[in-house]
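User: I'm preparing a small set of examples for a lab meeting where we compare how different chains pack in three dimensions. I only have the primary sequence for this one, and I'd like the structure in token form so I can line it up with the others. Please keep the answer compact; I'll paste it straight into my notes.
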Amino acid sequence: MQIIWISGATSHCRKFNITKTQLTRFAAALGILFIMLGSAVYFLGFRVAIKFDPGMARDMGGVITSEELYHREDEYREKLAKLQGNLKAMDQKIDALSKINEQYAALATPLPLKEKRKDKDNEASAGKGGPYLPLLPYQVNFYENAGLRVDLSKTLETTVSLNQKIQSLKEVWLERYERLIPLPTKPPIAAGYGLSSNFGARIDPITNNPAFHPGIDFNAKPGTQVLAAGNGTVIRAKQDPELGNVIEIKHTEGFTSLYAHCQKLLVNQGDIVVRGQLIAEVGNTGRSTGPHLHFSIYKNGTLLNPMDVLAFTKPAAAKEN
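Assistant: Understood. Below is the structure token output for the 321-residue chain.
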């Protein structure tokens, strides 16, 4: 093959002879140049992908570089930080749930069981053993696993599942707690006051004859605050020849509570009262030998021993028994 090159109108011609071999070599060199250029572009793109999009880098090269590992580790650390935040929130919910449980236990546990539970408190110092089983089925080892090789998605799923169970349990306990709030389970007088007379058979303080006492008497000074034992409606607030100034409250589920011998009544018939509300003051009115609060509880008209209903530490024993 011959190529003639003319540089201008007055210039002379130049002739180039190109053989087939030379043409083949030129085409091969040109191909190699394009391959090298493409490789350079691919390499630069691969490096950029590693830094900004490791997923693309995997698709491009199918390898994992140290930079990608560092980038992936940062992602894991971010997920771990999020997981730790979720666990902290769960701890707070568990604490709140424990408080609700304590309130519910205080309301729902009869006094005999409360006294037995004190014996169980001594079990904390007894010998214990057995294999250690972690709470969660997926635990993160922050010491041995520097590469953060842990299935974070499963751990998060477990956390969410546990959180849902806690929330469900919380709702059940709250429902039970709300059900117990209206019942007359709160002591009608502040702690620190003993009993001057128990429920049941006793010697009448005025006639000195055997008699039945339909409640318990709290020994307290005149003017001591009398509190509503539960939510309810005042169905009686007046003076009675034997009970003196008396208040009767109707609660839910057929319960009523009675507060007698008061010095001063602070609510009226028809008033809505809440658990722990101040309703009267201790006095010495009616058939009484001294200042005290007489307290009775009824269930559908049947007398109950208040000590079987109230949720509190047992007061000092009555003197006459």
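A couple of notes for your slides: The chain has three domains: 8-61, 66-113+138-180, 195-308. Residues 66-108 form the longest helix (43 residues).

User: Perfect, thanks.
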